Amino acid sequence: AYESITVIPTSILECAGDSLYLSLPMEMNRDYPESDSIRAAIPAFIDTVEGLEKLREDLFRRPLPHKLPRMVAVDSEWYFDDNSKEGTPEVRPKRVKHRSMSVATLQIAYVDENKTPLVLKSFVIDLLSNQPGFQTLAKECVSWLFGSASCDMTVLGFAFGGDLRQLRKYAGIGGYNKNHKEKSLEAVASRCLDIQHLLASTEEIKTGSVPGLKKCAQLYFQKALKKDDQTSDWRERPLRRSQLEYAALDAVILLVLLSQKKQEDEKKQNSCT
């Protein structure tokens, strides 16, 4: 996966000088520092067919000379089904056992290599949107990304098993739809990279005590990853600005972490030669 990631400095998420936490640019009229090679864009919330069609075109379909992304980082936010009596919005869904869960948003981040400087883009897709035609299109996009052998894009996630199950359930992929024709879920899994295990030490993997995202961020960033919105009710609309930033940041940070891990490994390799 290293060949699919460019150099992304940690400063791209440490741009808010008055904040103790990692952040993304959220306003057009503010000056945000950027490197000579890459800058971060304001996260986009997508709840319309038009917006999702544009994203699908940029990710999968635009012809040359447009450069399609080689890698996308993904995350999702969940909610308790109405018929589930387990948990409340104050309890993090992913940590509750025996729950009945559904996915509320899909976050996608990637590096747009068609601009100079490069642009680190992020999108929060509203999988609860009731606009006519949106659900059909969203399920097609999720099926392509997580259930199609013809998609060769690397998918980067963190503790990704739960997200993958929820997204496949949402789109009716594999065992969640007996009529689903894809027979290549193993091939799809081979292009999914869980960076949690990449960043874990041998001892952590052996003992099963792999680090969470906040701890992994501490390895490379001077500022902390804020998790206050982790326990939000992700069914509420509109999302608060802090929710939008939190959701997008959980995808964006994966690309930065992979880039930093790549640079770290290259330094170790060079020091041994």
Automatic annotation (TrEMBL):
The 3'-5' exonuclease domain is annotated at: 183-257
The record, for Pfam families, names:
DNA_pol_A_exo1
Q: Which GO terms describe its molecular function?
A: 3'-5' exonuclease activity; nucleic acid binding
Q: Source organism's superkingdom?
A: Eukaryota
GO process annotations (BP):
nucleobase-containing compound metabolic process
Gene3D superfamilies the UniProt entry points to: Ribonuclease H-like superfamily/Ribonuclease H
Q: What is this protein called?
A: 3'-5' exonuclease domain-containing protein
Protein species of origin:
Pseudo-nitzschia delicatissima
